[in-house]
DNA sequence: TAACTCATGCGTACAGTGTTCGCATCAACG
DNA sequence: CGTTGATGCGAACACTGTACGCATGAGTTA
């Protein structure tokens, strides 16, 4: 019905004079995050984002140069969700670092679509929020007493661990999300295929798979905490020789 | 000139009867890796891959279900490059694990385009080569003396660290490769912008940036080795209480 | 030798993508 | 009132992954 679209003279059918600033960079980024959270990274297209905001796809290009740039903005925006504690003195640095790491992981699991992007922009990506986070983490290690030249390496080690495990988990969760099942259904459903594939590698079939199928999420939490403790153990050993 | 394309009767102009098995799954995967190494992940399209192999794009679909499946195959193929040492007894487990980790990182840096894929398929991806690798690594930790239930968590910790740091490095290297510069040119060229962006976060400006600009690759190597040692320190501590 | 089967290659087509360009609109300003 | 400059948007381009159906010809059977 093109008649509907024609410039009708009636005040009611005529589209509102679309006030300025209806479309801002902030709103676009926010809506993109909402879309990504809801439908995953494969469903983010400029046109789809456009219709969601009630505009044409090409209008977005007035506020954002690229889809790539949009993604950079989006990634930095979720970094902004992190609330990194300021560096405490004494021996409480470990608690602070643990909290930072835990929050970074939680953020990644909240937005699993970020995993492939981290592999593309990495941490070269220097948005303001990412910079703030890195700086705060460095401060925590400095307060712990690491010498200047080692402070860098120590934070790098921690970040690598957290990003590595969170990325792996996020990829796993994305795959589950795409299937529409819950984590438990997915795990128990795939069990026979997995057992079959690893028949010649019995070592891969760890622990009581029954228990593992029951509380997959709890096991992931435990694994994360275990590794984090080991990494921090290894780093702490450098402080008290 | 469509005349050229028409089914000419001459034996010479007529295309060779294209012997069977000209196109195999193995050849497709191999050529895809070559293309990825040469031009990066953004340049891999089925048509481009097709013309490279002297066939039409759609012909590839006789041997590969999807582009996604092709990528799964490609990822597992590069896992096959790894030569994981068999588990040694005694205290030499640490050397073996170190070598495995180093090789895994080297493989990722050889094929930087793999980083975003690892974030998509993660390690849920159970191709035969990936399984072989995981199994061998588990064996190394078992030989080290980890109890059964902890063996899993220990390997997970190590893998997370290696994947995290290698992924970050790979993303960084991909970005450089796309710019056409060398790593040194890139680093020194971006220095002013970086210094500017981190003016309010002086902690981020680590060490003598002059030396850092001179041997960026060596510094990455050192950082990797440092973190790997810390992670292994933390894990070793669990063995001798 | 002749007929048949069926895996393989490929041309065409479709729906969808990111992005460019030029035109229309309209708030703000002189 | 006239001008300017920012903003929205329709149309178009080059490109993507992939479904479909037809042609070919090697291998097998009669």
From TrEMBL, chains A, B:
Highest taxon listed in the record's lineage: Bacteria
Keywords, alphabetical: DNA-binding, Transcription, Transcription regulation
Annotated region described as Disordered, given as residue ranges: 197-218
InterPro entries in the cross-refs: Homeodomain-like_sf (IPR009057), HTH-type_TetR-like_transc_reg (IPR050109), HTH_TetR (IPR001647), Repressor_TetR_C (IPR004111), Tet_transcr_reg_TetR-rel_C_sf (IPR036271)
Domain HTH tetR-type: 22-82
Annotated DNA-binding residue span(s): 45-64
UniProt key word Transport: no
Protein's recorded name: TetR/AcrR family transcriptional regulator
Organism annotation: Streptomyces pyxinicus
